[in-house]
Structures are given as structure tokens and as C-alpha cells.
Amino acid sequence: YLDGTSLLAGVIVLGIMITPTFVILAxxxxxxxxxxxxxxxxxxxxxxxxxxxxxxxxVARRGIVTGALLSAGTAVGEFVAMALVAGxxxxxxxxxxxxxxxxEPVRPLAATIFINSEVIGMSVAESALFAIAALILxxxxxxxxxxxxxxxxxxxxxxxx
Length: 161
What we know:
By secondary structure, this protein is mainly α.
């Protein structure tokens, strides 16, 4: 039966939550496109939509990717909303039945730490919770470093052109 708690509901809620962050970062990347590119394209008679697709998006691509990576890092740490709508069940959905696994309840990693915080002090369970925390921290650091790398490549390419 479907009660509304599922992986799909969690993905939708997370998507809605990180959209403002992504929009702000992507807008900044698009605003950073030099004005002379836009003016030259319009002077050549290119339609505004074609200018956006062929000139602005390719120039701002790395900034947009950086925004997506930073938004993904934010999503990794968001667990309250995900825990409320994803079901909070400690099992992995099985893709054996096709795409039905998107409708199965799940528990995010960060929620596992929160829910099992009472076992702190038991060595095995405590080690597992610290391993989960280390995994979340590693994912966030890697996404942040990847965003910095993409941003650095963007700055280097701007200086060379």
C-alpha cells in the first residue's frame, strides 16, 4: 500500500529545498557572462533564446555545475525533511522489481545517526554511527572540492581568453 512515505517523496522534497540555492548560484553564473558577448550576439541578429542557448549557457556552464554540486552537498546534509517524508525505515529498496523501489520507504544516513543516538556508548553501534558521519562528511568535502575545482577551471579559462 502507498502511504506517501517513499524515496520518491524524499527526492521531490529535497529537490524543492535545494532549488533556491541552485537558482541563486546559477543566476550569478549567468550574470557573470561578459556583457560584450550578449551585445555582440544581439548585434549580429541572433534571437535572445539562441543567444542564451548558444552563448550564455556554454560560457556559464562551469558556474552552473558548481552551483549544482554545492546544492547536492546541501542535500546530503538535509535529513529532517527527508526523514519525515521518506518513511524512516532502515532497509535498502530493492531495484529487483523495476522502478517500484522509488515508492518504498527509506531512511537517510543522517537520520540514522539522529534516530540511533541513544546507542552512543555501545562500541559497535557507536563505531557504525561514526562511520556514517564520516561518510557524510567525506561526501560533503568531496562535493565542495569538486565545486572548487570546477570554479578554478572556470577562472583559469576566463583569464586565458
